[in-house]
Structures are given as C-alpha cells and as structure tokens.
Known about the structure:
- By secondary structure, the chain is α/β, with parallel strands linked by helices.
- The protein has helices spanning 18-26, 34-47, 68-82, 102-112, 123-136, 155-172, 184-189, 192-195, 210-222, 234-244, 248-265, 272-277; strands at residues 57-61, 91-95, 141-145, 176-180, 198-202.
- The radius of gyration is 22 Å and the shape is elongated.
Amino acid sequence: MEFEHIHPNLQDKPCLSDAERIKWIQTERFITYKKASEMLERLNYLFHYPKRDRMPCLLICGRSGIGKTLILRKFIKDAEGASRDTHTKPVVAIQMPVIPEEKRFYEEILISLEAPFNFSSPSHVLKNLCRKLLRDLDVKILVIDEIHSIFVGTPRQQRVIFNTLRYLTNDLKIPIVCAGIEEAKLALAADAQLADRFEVQVLREWKSGREYASLINTLSKSLPLRKPSELCEPEALELLLSHTQGVTLRIFRTIEHLATAAIKSGDEKIKISDIKDFRFTPLVSME
C-alpha cells in the first residue's frame, strides 16, 4: 500500500501497529519551519565564531510554549552529533537556577558537565573548576535557558549573575546564548555592557499566512495516518489557529491528540469536523 500523503521518508510508519503509531506520534521530534531554520543558522554562526574580545551573544525570547527550548535542543543535538572528539564538549547547556546565585550557577554548569565536585566548596573554587573544565573540553558556546528566572533574585543577586555572565564570555571568549520569555529583554537591558553584546531574536505566535500553512502541511505529512487528513483546508487552518491562539506547543499538542483519536477510532485521518468537535481542554495560561 502506498501512502503518498506522507513524507517519503516516513511512508513505512502507517504499516506499524496502532500502539506503535500512537507512541511515534507522542514522541518529541523537531519539525522544521522557516523561523526555526533562521534561528539554527544564527546559532551555528555563533558556534563557529572565532575567539576575540567582546564575543557576540544571543537572546531568544518569546512566550512559554512558542518553541525556544525545542530549537535549542535541536542545535545542541546537531552540534554534539557533528563532534567526533570524545574529549570535547562543544555545547554546555543549563537552566538558570531557581534561586539565581553565583554558587548555584556554577553548580549547574558542573552538573551539566557531569563533573565531580564538593557542594560545600565556596563559589571561587567552583568558578575556577568551571573555567578549567570549560577550557579543557574546548566548549564553543554556553546556553542558558529560563534566563528570566533571574527576576526571582534580589537586585544584588541579579548584578552578581550579570557579572558572572560577562566574566565568562570575556574570560573564555565564547558566545553565550540565553532563552526566556520576552521579559528577559528587560533583565539583560538592566546591564548596559551585556545589553550591547546580546542580539535579540523574538519568536512570535503564528498568524494566518503562507508560513503557518507550510508548518501545518509539514506536520500533516509527518503523521502516520493511513488516509489523507484535512488539516490543510482553509477552514481547518483557521480553526486550529483560533483554538491554539497560535502557540506552537498548543498546535503540536492539538494535532497529536487529533491524530491519536483518528487511529483509535479507525478513521485514519483528521477531518474538519474532528477539529470542530474536539474538546480543547484549556491550559492555565489560556484562562
């Protein structure tokens, strides 16, 4: 049986069992779209940037669920996959600690490196250990997600973290990439020296248009359903956009639920009527 409505590389998937197809649908994977490709291109540009004073840095911001973390994971996975040297670590990625303190910050880096250390060690000891390991492992870029968590800290804690970021990029001569909600711009703008180094890329909610239609078409072709779906019909596109408010994660989750229901019901395709009848359970952020 041929499945011409599915991407050529995935045409074996509809032959799997129902349980296997549902599991495949629910497994996280990266879906390429124009803005994500542009972000990845910029990240790769920074990754290969030669060492110099005042390294360029990047802030990726947007509302929760818009796709920041997925793009970073894709970049990290590709960078690590391209490295053949087992004695290096091209990208180190952490989350800003819930309590933004210098010591906790260095602990997060050491945990990411899977390096043994003593939690009772003072900050300066952990800092020197981080510096040595990041150099020895030839780290090319430091990624910090949830940078907006810095707002939880006191003004003094925030200044210390800013100083730490500036110190690391100066000392190691590597770019720093931060990601967070749009308020993260306010955090970095509070430090004039950092503000001049960070380029800002904003991920916006989806709007009606060619790029949005292309995203849904790509998603539709990735689904292991045995019949062509109606996701790309104009009415379906508008219904999805209305129900999800154009947030990437909500769009993906909705299509995931609809595709799973299509397999369980035996319909093997997502119809416009399914989107109309689908009970969208609102998230807290949608209330």
